[in-house]
């Protein structure tokens, strides 16, 4: 029997006045009737096209279960580093399930200061991803599996049905390419951002530069340490994302952008320096990353709505380059993301070609960065 988890204490929210993003909340208690689904489908498509991020409430997972996952993540990160290092995958070749230690990125070129971000990824429990875990995780693996599967059935499946309705596709279109039993690179993540000294903080502009996620939807549980910012699709302004009680924060990602020919925009976001009254604490994150099945080729779907609106080709199709499978796309972008010793100031890296036909973009400038070097697509 696993030792009892300690309670998890959330830090107080910031008292500073921040420029919060005006995000909408999708209420899943309305899901399940034709009228409710139609209303929510419009709500969803407007949210991901106009803002990219939105909140979800009433998703049938208790706050107690969420708190236990945060407590588990906290226990994992309290393990000695030498124990955590036993679970590092082949990061240099794009592998990501297991533990990623801090310090692979240079975040201040002048001093050589490195990131303090640690990641522990747990893949799907569907037989495709055997993985060893430290005892603190393995002893609670049944509970973790129940939680991960609940996120799929209670949150993701409804979102995929609503997206299909919005795009005038069969309701099961997106659920069929995101079935839990199929091989895909979904994973649950415990993520820790350790604090910096006041002197170090004064040199930094962000902890993680502006970027997009590579999958379908990312689910982010409430994190009271304010640091997440999104880039507004319409104005280009950076806005803070406010933590909301008993909600998930959700963002659309690259795969959905490819599958809709750019109609669904992949959300640009970053993790910046917390406000002064929260800079003395570490930041623990709990996330779930959803991705289509590995063998799916990322062609633009044949949707009546997309045809009418003129969204019929994604970057790969428009450039005449081969359209990758989701697996090819995942590991190409993960390998780029995990490049060791990279510097945030290296714009040649930040505009690299991930696959022929797709080049990364610079979404925020880093002080001291070099001019972007064109890279052939």
TrEMBL record:
Residues 26-122 form the Non-haem dioxygenase N-terminal domain. InterPro entries: DIOX_N, IPNS-like_FE2OG_OXY, IPNS-like_sf, Iron_ascorbate_oxido_reductase. Residues 191-291 form the Isopenicillin N synthase-like Fe(2+) 2OG dioxygenase domain. PANTHER family: 2-OXOGLUTARATE (2OG) AND FE(II)-DEPENDENT OXYGENASE SUPERFAMILY PROTEIN-RELATED (PTHR47990). This is Clavaminate synthase-like protein. It comes from Gloeophyllum trabeum (strain ATCC 11539 / FP-39264 / Madison 617).
């Amino acid at each position: 029997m696993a030792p009892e988890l300690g309670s998890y204490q959330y830090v107080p929210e910031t008292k500073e006045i921040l420029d919060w993003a005006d995000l909408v909340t999708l209420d899943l208690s309305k899901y399940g009737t034709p009228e409710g689904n139609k209303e929510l489908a419009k709500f969803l498509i407007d949210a991901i096209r106009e803002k990219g991020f939105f909140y979800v409430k009433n998703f049938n997972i208790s706050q107690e279960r969420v708190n236990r996952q945060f407590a588990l993540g906290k226990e994992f990160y309290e393990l000695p580093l030498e124990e955590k290092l036993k679970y590092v995958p082949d990061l240099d070749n794009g592998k990501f399930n297991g533990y990623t230690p801090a310090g692979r990125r240079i975040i201040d070129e002048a001093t050589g200061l490195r990131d303090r971000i640690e990641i522990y990824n747990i893949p799907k429990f569907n037989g495709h991803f055997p993985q060893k875990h430290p005892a603190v995780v393995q002893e609670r693996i049944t509970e973790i599996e129940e939680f991960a599967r609940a996120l799929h059935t209670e949150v993701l499946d409804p979102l995929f049905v609503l997206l299909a309705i919005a795009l005038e596709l069969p309701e099961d279109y997106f659920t069929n390419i995101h079935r839990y039993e199929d091989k895909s690179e979904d994973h649950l993540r415990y993520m820790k951002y350790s604090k910096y000294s006041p002197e170090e903080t004064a040199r930094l502009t962000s902890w993680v530069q502006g970027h997009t996620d590579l999958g379908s939807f990312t689910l982010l549980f409430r994190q009271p340490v304010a640091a997440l910012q999104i880039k507004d699709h319409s104005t280009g302004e950076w806005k803070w994302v406010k933590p909301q009680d008993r909600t998930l924060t959700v963002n659309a990602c690259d795969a959905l952008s490819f599958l809709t020919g750019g109609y669904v925009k992949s959300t640009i976001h970053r993790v910046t320096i917390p406000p002064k009254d929260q800079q003395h604490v570490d930041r623990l994150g709990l996330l779930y990353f959803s991705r289509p099945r590995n063998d799916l080729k990322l062609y633009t779907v044949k949707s009546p709505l997309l045809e009418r609106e003129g969204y019929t080709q994604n970057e790969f199709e428009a450039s005449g380059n081969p359209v990758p499978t989701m697996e090819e796309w995942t590991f190409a972008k993960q390998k780029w993301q995990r490049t060791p010793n990279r510097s945030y100031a290296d714009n040649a890296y930040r505009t690299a070609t991930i696959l022929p036909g797709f080049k990364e973009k610079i979404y925020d400038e880093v002080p001291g960065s070099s001019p972007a070097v064109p890279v052939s697509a």
